[in-house]
Amino acid sequence: MTFCLGVKVAGGIVGIADTRITSGSEVSTKKKLFVHQTSNHSMFIMTSGLRSVRDKAITYFQEILEEQDVEFNKLYKAVNAFGNQVKRVAKEDRKALQEAGLAFNASAIVGGQLQDDDEPKLYLLYPEGNWIEITDDGSPFIIIGNSGYGKPILYRNIKNDTSLEMVLKLGFLAFDSTRVSANDVDFPIDVLVYEKDSYNIQEHRYNKQDLEHISHQWNALLNNSVERLNDDWTEPMFRKLEN
User: Fold this and answer.
1) pLDDT digits (tens, 9 = 90+) for 118-140
2) Number of CB atoms found within 10 A of residue 22's CB
3) Total Cβ atoms within 10 A of residue 143
4) Dihedral sign of CA atoms 155, 161, 165, 168 in order
5) DSSP class of residue 200?
6) What is the torsional sign of CA 107, 112, 117, 118?
7) Which is it for the CA torsion 204, 189, 207, 147, positive or negative?
8) Cβ-based neighbour number of residue 53 at 10 Å
9) What topology does CATH give the domain 3-212?
């Protein structure tokens, strides 16, 4: 499966994408993050779903960027263009995939800032090619792929004024919770940070050995925190067991 996370806060955007690809019993590592940058154009796409659909849609979109990049002055216009390429792939391949028992399930997180955007933008693109914008009046993040395990820590801790550094820490913990709970999400992870109005997306890849000590530290802190929880509320239950 996949774990791709995009978080938008006042200071910018943080993205995390795992790299595990599972096809039957075969496991491989492939990048799920695409970044495009020019002078005042910074955007990225993270994808989940069938690898063949992702590669074809991204290839088509790269051709669009080569021909029309200057026409995209706001990110939603680029999202529309990418959505059209997803629809194009669906028209070409959906029937054959369904006949082979495969679902056309390509989803994407698209984020960044183009020259006329007043702030960074973050979008969720559905397999049908339509999209929603992630705004600060709702949940400031979106996860595609294996989304259930990482949400609790994000819901509890991320606010619009959370720093990018803290968002990255929380995002890693969301990934780590997913990794230890699902066997189809794993290292390496590709991480990006975009600061508002910088037009400069920074990328970095982390391998397991880079962050394993953080996983161990977090596990120890969790255990210690549980042990320190007030236990007055448990006493009535255990008194019943003693009687």
Assistant:
1) 999 999 999 999 999 999 877 89
2) 14
3) 26
4) positive
5) -
6) positive
7) positive
8) 23
9) Glutamine Phosphoribosylpyrophosphate, subunit 1, domain 1 (3.60.20)
Angstrom CA distances, 79 to 58, 112, 225, 228, stand at 12, 11, 43, 47
Contact between 23 and 29 under an 8 Å Cβ cutoff? The reply is no
**H helix count then E strand count, the chain:** 6, 12
- Please give the structure tokens belonging to residue 194: 């975009």
pTM above 0.90, yes or no: yes
The dihedrals phi and psi of 156, each to the nearest 5 degrees, come to -80, -20
Residue with the bigger pLDDT between 243 and 19: it is: 19
* Backbone φ and ψ of 203, nearest 5°: -115, 150
Distance from chain centroid for Cα 152: 15
Confidence of residue 145 (pLDDT cuts 50, 70, 90): very high
What is the spatial distance between Cα 173 and Cα 176, in angstroms, rounded to a whole number? 5
User: What residue type is 211 in one-letter code?
Assistant: L
- Other Cβ atoms within 10 Å of 29 Cβ, number: 11
